[in-house]
Amino acid sequence: MILGDNMQIETLLLKNNVWEINESLENSLAADLVMVFGDTEEFVRVEHYDYLRNKYPNAHIAGCSSSGNIMGAGISESKLVATAVKFDTAKVILKRASFEIGDAIESISKELAGGFEQSGLKHLFVLADGLNLNGSDLVNGFNRATDIPTTGGLAGDGARFEQTWVMADGYAQQKIIVALGFYGDSLSVGSGCYGGWSEFGTFRNITKSKANVLFELDGRPALDLYKEYLGEYASDLPHSGLRFPLSIRKDSDSPEVIRTLLGINEEDKSIIFAGNVPEGYTARLMKPNIELLIEGAGAAAEIAKIQNEKTALGLVVSCVGRKLVMSQLIDEELEAVAQELGENVQLTGFYSYGEIAPFESDLKNCQLHNQTMTLTVIYEK
User: What is the pLDDT of residues 285-328, one digit of tens each?
Assistant: First the structure.
């Protein structure tokens, strides 16, 4: 059992269709929250939710399908990972919202976030379908509804990009958003987000776009320009685009936001990204540097870290693009995070299709990120 003065945490791994409990709460009936992440095939199986619900009848259960499951200082080989948490005095509230393709996601997420009682609310953690909504609209809704710091991520599906699922006190579903509200004066929450990619090439102006579809850079077809930069990698688009994200910024004084390429349209020479690419923004291509990516993960942990030796929960949301680029070295970014945060922080999380976190300079407004390491560290004082 990982047991501090206040928070208690236990972890579960699904191996050969059997749950192995690596730690034990003093009383599983007292668990307040269970976070679960898993490979799509296993995540959707109802018997796994039933097991967790029977073991933790009084806990909120939330999670999503992933592109890699994180437990401790590495990627777990288990198909499912779960983390049960008992707080001393803090409380957790779960709210969810369903949507259909074409619905106004910004309005739906605004209503969802606005449904939380603001008094005593310290943090919001959000998980959402990773393929059927616009992540930029999702975070815009939260920003319109609340000033409470918000983090989270978009569900993954390996490198398949076929279907993503979310769990919210029930069997896994598609096209839903779940938000967890953390309440209590005993809570202290830190968050950090960092990329580590290298920019290259010329700064370009986004001259034509619509939401997350980029049509023109400096008046030229975006896809043609992208192919020129990618060279030999262009023949493997859109898959190779995960290695070459786009850095965008509103102006020279604004922090950069990274956008991942999801698809291309050869007919109109456009590129589809994982988040909005507004007209008037400046854009520049990025390429991977493994050493800088690992350093970036450590930097995110340094930002999120709070000086506290008590047991803490560390929620990790990193990008599938980082996992594909770093390949067998991927554990090194998680080791960097664990080393910076310390042994008292129990890490769990997933590789995602999008990360949600505020910039350090503006904690009241969350942003949709791609290709970053994003951390949320929750302590009880």
Answer: 999 999 999 999 999 999 999 888 889 999 999 999 999 999 99
CA-to-CA distance for 26 and 103, rounded, in angstroms?
A: 44
Sheet with 345-352, strands from edge to edge, namely: 69-71, 345-352, 312-319, 373-380, 187-194
Return the residue matching tokens 């340094």. Answer: 302
Nearest to 331 by CA among 127, 69, 130: 69
Quote the pTM value: 0.94
- The 3-state secondary structure of 296-361 reads HHHHHHHHHCCCCCCCEEEEEEEEHHHHHHHHHHCHHHHHHHHHHHCCCEEEEEEEECEEEEEECC
Paired strand residues for 168:
62
Domain boundaries, the chain: 2-194+291-380, 198-287
Q: What is the pLDDT of residue 242?
A: 87
Give the three-class secondary structure for 185: coil
- pLDDT per position as a tens digit, 118-133: 999 999 999 999 999 9
